[in-house]
Design brief:
Elements lengths: L1 H39 L6 H15 L9 H27 L2 H14 L17
Helix pairs in contact: 1-2
């Protein structure tokens, strides 16, 4: 029974993958040919070139799902959580070793660096470099 289900579903899956790939390639081709020749004077591209750009973007930037579930995402999540815990421990340990004056100076520099709670400056005045 289970094997029969695969026999029936496999052709639909293959057609779905091919259709998804075709639509993705066509969308990239249409967007490229609509925008880039007009904006930058770049040449128009064919379907296979668009499919290559789509594959290259997938390799370089990831995407199209696959990151939210499964054993690999759980491993990534655990490694990320472990790294965050270690980082927080190290920062806390270093802050505890500082004198109160050093700690306050460090916090103030972080606020200034990230634009939080920064002192008011006159327009046109340069920010001091740390």
């Amino acid at each position: 029974m289970r094997q029969m289900k695969w026999v029936v579903m496999a052709p639909f899956a293959i057609v779905g993958i091919l259709l998804f790939t075709f639509i993705g390639g066509e969308v990239v081709r249409l967007l490229w040919n609509w925008l880039l020749p007009e904006l930058f004077g770049w040449p128009r591209i064919e379907f296979w070139q668009a499919l290559g750009i789509l594959a290259l973007c997938r390799i370089l930037f990831g995407g199209l799902g696959g990151h939210g579930s499964g054993p690999r995402s759980n491993i990534h999540r655990r490694v990320s959580e472990r790294w965050n815990e270690r980082f927080a421990e190290r920062v806390t340990e270093r802050l505890e070793q500082m004198t109160p004056e050093e700690r306050e100076r460090f916090k103030q520099r972080m606020r200034e660096r990230w634009g939080l709670d920064a002192p008011a400056q006159e327009p046109g005045a340069e920010r001091p470099t740390p």
